[in-house]
Amino acid sequence: MTSLKKEFPILSSFTYLNTPFTGVLCSSVQSKIHKLEEDYRLRGSLFSDAYEDSIVEDTKLLIAEIYNAEFDCIGLLNNFSSGINLILNDLPDQSKVVLLAQDYPSVNLPVKSRNFEVFEVDINLKLYENLKQTFTEVKPDFFIFSMTQYISGLQLDLKALEKLKDEFPGISFIADATQYCGSEAFDFSNSPFDVFGTSGYKWLNAGLGNAFFLLKPGFLEKHRFRSLGSNSLTSKPDGKPRAVGFLESGHFDVIAVARLQFALEFHYKTLGIDFIESRIKSLSKLAKSEFFKRNLLDTEVIDKQAHQNIFSLKGEESDIDKLKQKGILSAFRGGRIRVGFQYFNTEKDLESLLNALEELQ
Question: pTM for this structure?
Answer without folding.
Answer: 0.96
